[in-house]
Amino acid sequence: MSDQKPVLHVDSLVVEYGGRAAFRAVDGVSFDIAAGEVLALVGESGCGKSSTARAVIGMEKPRAGEVLYRDRPVQPLGMRTRPAELTAIQMVFQDPNSSLNPRIRVAQQIAEGSRAARARGVDTEAPSHWLKAVGLSATLENRYPYQLSGGQRQRVAIARALAAKPDLIVADEPISALDASAQASVAGMMRELCVASGAAMLFISHDLSVVRLMADRVAVMYRGRIVESGATPVVWAQPVHPYTAALLDAIPHPDGEGVLPAAPASEAPSSWRVDIPEALDRVR
Length: 284
Fold this sequence. Notes:
The chain has helices spanning 49-57, 106-119, 127-133, 150-163, 180-197, 208-214, 232-237, 242-249, 278-282, and strands at residues 8-17, 23-33, 38-42, 64-69, 72-73, 89-92, 168-172, 200-204, 217-222, 225-231. The protein is an alpha/beta fold.
C-alpha cells in the first residue's frame, strides 16, 4: 500500500451481543482500505463478517477498538441524521427488501442517493444513468420494487448506493440475490466503478471465485478474528492458515461455487491460529 492515509482504518475492533454473558462476534479485528482498493472479507457463516460490516458503518456500537473514516471516528447511528460528509459511506445489503421502500418508485429511491451526493457538494447523474450502469433498462424508473425480480431489486439497491458518489462502499453479500450468470458481471461492474471513482470497498462474500476476480486483498475470518490476510494472488497460491487452505480446497471445479467449510471439530481453536509471515504483510 502507498504512504497515503487509508480511507478506512479499523483497529482492534470488538463487537459483542448480549448482556452479562455476552457473545463476542468480532474479536480484535484490524485492517485498512486505501482509495480505489477492494478488500474482500471471507469466512464461514457466523464468523463475524457482517458484524464487522455493521460496525464499520455505525449500525453496531463497538465494545472496543476504533473505526476511522478519513481519520474521523464513525459514530454509531442514532435518531439524529447522519452528518452529510458521512453519507460518502454507503452500504449494499444482502437482502434488497430490507433496504428498498416498497411504496416508492425506483427513480425516487435512486434520487435519494443523488441528494446525499449533492448535500456534500458532489455532482451526480440522473437515475436513468445509474440504472444503465448496473445493467438495467431506464424504463424501470417508474416501477415499484415489488414489480421487479429479486435480482433487479438488488441492482437498484446498488444503483442507489452508487448515485451517492461514495468513497467507501461496504457491500455485505451484495450479489447473492443474483443468478449465477449475473454475479460475476455485477461484481466486475462494482469493481470498475470503485476503481474509476477512487472509492474504497469492503466486499463480503462467500463466493470465492468472484472474490478472486475482483479483490485486491483478502482477509480470512475465523471465529471473530482475521487469521490470514494478504494480496489475493498470494493468498490463493500460498495459503498459510489451515482454514484458508480448507476453504480454498472446498471450491468445486469447474464452476467455482462452494460452501465455506467449518473448522474440524477435532481440532482446538488455538491450533488454528498462526502468525502471518511478514512476507504477506509486505504485499499489501
